[in-house]
Amino acid sequence: MLREARGGRSMVEVAAAAGLSAETLRKIETGRAPTPAFFTVAALAQALGLSLDDVVRRCALVPA
Prior knowledge:
The chain is mainly α. 66% of the residues lie in helices and 0% in strands. It contains five helices and no strands.
């Protein structure tokens, strides 16, 4: 979902906009950090122009 949402933006660009390291974003995208903190999710949503409702809806569609 994150890769799709960031589109053509680089991982470094999105991570910086969210106040995260690129490595943290990489871990989230690859599943090595499967349960990021709420504030991390909120910061990424804001950086990607998504509402938290959008994030919840998209995550609900992802098979466990």
